[in-house]
Amino acid sequence: MVSKQIQDMEVETLASACLFLIVVTLLWLSATTKPFSTTSTAIFPKVYPIIGSAFSVAANDHRRNQWLSNILQNSPTATFVLHRPFGTRQIFTANPANVQHILKTHFHIYYKGPTLNSTVGDFLGNGIFNADGDKWKFQRQHSSHEFNTRSLRKFVETVVDDELSNRLIPILSHASKTQTTFHDFQDILQRFTFDNICRIAFGYDPEYLIPSLPETEFVKAFNDGTEICSWRLNAAVPLFWKIKKLLNIGSEKRLRVAISQVRDLATKIIREKKQELKEKNTLESVDLLSRFLSTSLSDEALVSDIIVSFILAGRDTTSAALTWFFWLLSKHPHVEKEVLKEIDEKSETSASAYDEVKNMVYTHAALCESMRLYPPVPAGRKEASNDDVLPDGTFVKKGTGVVFHTYTMGRSEKIWGPDWAEFRPERWLNRVQEDDKWKFKGVDPFTYPVFLAGPRVCLGKEMAFLQMKTMVAGIMRQFKVVPVVANGAEPEYTSALTSLVKGGLHVRIEARSVTKTHY
Ligand code: HEM
Ligand SMILES: *[C@@H]1O[C@H](CO)[C@@H](O)[C@H](O)[C@H]1NC(C)=O
C-alpha cells in the first residue's frame, strides 16, 4: 500500500517535470517569436506560432464567456477564428444566420464529431449527447415517447408534484420557521432535479432531497465527471490533459475513478430494472429505461451511456436556470409581483396542476428572459464533416470545430436592442387589447438557441418549462427566496458545460404573509 503510494508519487513528480519542460519550451518559443497577427488589439487575442492564442485562452479561463462575448461583439459579422495549438482552428459565431445554417439547413455537415468525442467520450460513451448518425437517431426516436403530452402530464402530476409537496416544501417550511439560511439554494434545486430526472427516466428514486441533505458518492462522482470534462473542453493546451490521462495522474486519475463509480450505479439501476421487468412481465412503468430495455437493445454499456446523458441533460440545466431566475426576481420586485399575480390567478381558474402551469404565460416569459441573460448551456459545439462556407462568408475547413455562442447572442444589442441588459419579461409578450391578457410572443430559435434548434433541438424543452413553472409556483406561493449577498455583489456565471452559479447561492427563506394559497 505504502510502496504503491510512493510509486504513484514518483510517477506524478516525473509527469509534472515533463509538463514543466513542455511549458518552458513553449514559453521560450513564443517569447522569441513575434505574434503573427497584426490586428492584435486589446480585444482580439494575440496569435503565436505553435501555441496559437493559448496564452489568452488560459488568462481568460475564469471569465471565458465574458471574454468570448467581448471579442464576438467587436467582430464585424459576430464571427471570429480562434487559433488553437498546433495550427488547429476553432470558429466562434454569434450570428443567427450562421446558427441556422449550422443547426438546420446544413445539419448534415455539422455533427458532434470525433474531437468532441475524444474529449467527453470517456464520460458520456455513446450516449445521445455525443452520438452521431444511426446511434443518435435510435436514441432520439425511442426517447421521444417520453416527451409526448400524456407522459408530460403524468410527469407533472405525479413526480414533480410529489417531490414538491412531500420533499421541497417541508424543507423550506422548516428553514423559514427556524430562520436558518441555505448556504446553497442551488444545491437544493439540484437535489430536486436529480430526484426528478432519475424518477422520470429510470423509475428510480435516489432520495437525494431529504432533510439530512446527504452526500452521495454517485452525485460526487457525477459532479467530478462533468467538471473535469469541462476543463478538458476549455483547455488552453489540450495536449496537457492528454498527457495527464496517459499517466493517470491528478484530475485525470479522479476522472477515471468518477467514471467507474457512475458506471457502477448505472449498471445497478439497469440490473434492478431488468429484474423488475422479468417479474412483472408487463410494462406498467413506462420510464425511459424500461422502454430501452424492452427494445431489441441488450447492450448494457449503451443503456448505461443513455442513463448518464439523461442525468446530465435533466439535472444541471433546470437547476441552473432556476437559481438565476430567483436571483433576478429578488432584484426586480415588479416582475416578482407580476409572477405572483399570475400564480394566484391560475390556481383559481385551472382544473389541474398541469393546466395551471401550462397557462402561466408571464412566468414563461420571465424564465425565457432569465435564460437569455444566463443561458444554462452557454455554447454549442459542432464539427464540420466537410469543407463549407458560412452565410457570412467564413470559410470552414473539414474537421474544424464550430462553436455558436448562445451567451453572446443573448447579450447582443443588434439582436435585442439598446435595452438588452435589462431584465424585462415584457419583451416576450404582447398585451391582447380586448381582454387585457398577456400573449406569448416567441423568438426564432436561431436567434435564441438556448435549447438549440433544428433536428437536435432539446428533447426536454417542454418538460423543463413545465417542471420549472411547477417549482416556481409551488415555492413562490408560500415563500420568498431572499439571496444573502453583500450589497452590490453579483453571483458569478461559470464556464462549465452547464453554467451554474459559481459557489452556489446563499439564501434566506421567508414565509409569505398569507396569500390565497391552495395548499
Ligand atoms: C432549462 C432547461 C434546459 C435547457 C436550457 C436545455 C438545453 C439543451 C441544449 C442546449 C441542448 C443541445 C446540447 C448539444 O447538443 O450541444 C439540449 C439537448 C438535449 N436535452 Fe435539453 N435542456 C434543458 C432541459 C432538459 C431536460 C429537463 C431534459 C430531459 C431529460 C433534456 C433533454 C435533452 C436531450 C435528450 C438532449 C439531446 C438531444 C439530441 O441531441 O438529439 N433537456 N438541451
Ligand atoms: C466515443 O468515445 C468512447 C470512449 O472513448 C468510445 O467508446 C466510442 O466508441 C466513441 N464513439 C465514436 C462514435 O467514436
UniProtKB/TrEMBL annotation:
Keywords carried by this UniProt record: Heme, Iron, Membrane, Metal-binding, Monooxygenase, Oxidoreductase, Transmembrane, Transmembrane helix
Residues holding heme: C458
Similarity remark: Belongs to the cytochrome P450 family.
Name of this chain's protein: Cytochrome P450
Segments traversing the membrane: 12-31
Molecular function GO labels: heme binding; iron ion binding; monooxygenase activity; oxidoreductase activity, acting on paired donors, with incorporation or reduction of molecular oxygen
Cofactor annotation: heme
